[in-house]
Design goal:
Length: 422
Amino acid sequence: MVASIATSAFFPASSGKSPLSKSANGSGETVKAVNFSTTPVAPSQSSRAKSAIEAVSKVEGYAAIEPDKVAPPLPSTPAPRTIYNQLPDVSFWLATVMAIVIAAADRHFTLPDWRPKRPDMLSDAFSFGKIVQDGLVFKQNFLIRSYEIGADQTASIETLMNHLQETALNHVRSAGLLGDGFGCTPEMTKRNLIWVVSKMQVLVDHYPIWGDIVEVETWVGSHGKNGMRRDWHIRDYNSGQTILRATSLWVMMNKLTRKLAKIPEEVRDEIRPYFFERMAIVDEDNRKFPKLEELNGNSAEKHLRKGLTPRWGDLDVNQHVNNVKYIGWILESAPMAMLEKHELAGMTLEYRRECGKDSVVQSHTTVYSDCTNSARQDSASIHCEHQLSLESGANIVKARTAWRPKQGQNKGIVGTVSTAHA
């Protein structure tokens, strides 16, 4: 019924005379219909909607609210001003940035390489080291730091010797032969065996300065039945010029009894695949070292330094004095005039016995000049015989050193700064 009333309101019946067949009160009397104009004016949409709403409200029994009488909406109040709603709209810029990022990813766009291009500043120049030449040679680079140079503004011999020792241990570790001990293979660890150096020879071509990068190569080879040979070659990283060459002989010692031992076959099988038969020094110094009594009996210049004792920092993990420390003790008795005008060109060391933390050492140096004219000795080559001995007289190390006049070519940054401030 509601639907029909609403329909009739929007779609009124056509005009004309139409008698009703049934009276409004239900009787049979005929009632005449009211005549409408043949051309009625169509009601507006709003009036038809109003009529429909009134008809529906009368049928359903509730009062309809006319559209014209609906209260207008309340005016909206603006949001309170805060720091957030006053910020500028950056959505456009964010969308632009995201579009650039997506486009760069699609085109595999890469940023310019920010790393410096100088060879001495490459990050991989100071890597841990690597094994080269079919796994037989270990190579590692070192930067000469300010605290490693001496009064000559060059790296000290102790610094270079520390580089030799470091690369030797890193070589063993990189090859996978490092057991629980310090520089020991797994089979050596099982038998309480350690390596000890018996002889070393070093030839120095020139000394690097602060900021230089040195490239150290080391490898091992066989030596007799119960020994191993290890060689080194140090070059300048940028120029490739030789800085130092060294060779050494190593034997085994029982860590508990402190006596020399033979190399077991199990240990030899571990290290044999890494032997590389190449010699860093072809003409080795195999001359016999003189005895201390023979040195005291000649008329050469002699120097003695007593009371040298090891500090805790001088000991290695095997609880004896580090090999590099012996070199410092040898130079303790060298005359200052020679150190000021000459530089170490080479040395040969023969290790006789270990030195413990409670030992008291004496350093003996005998100086021989290649020139008999004292006025020209500053420009002449010098060689020295050295001995380190305990107070009891037992020999620890015998050494022979060769010295050449300083060339004056070492002009580092430190010297330039000092001259400018003088």
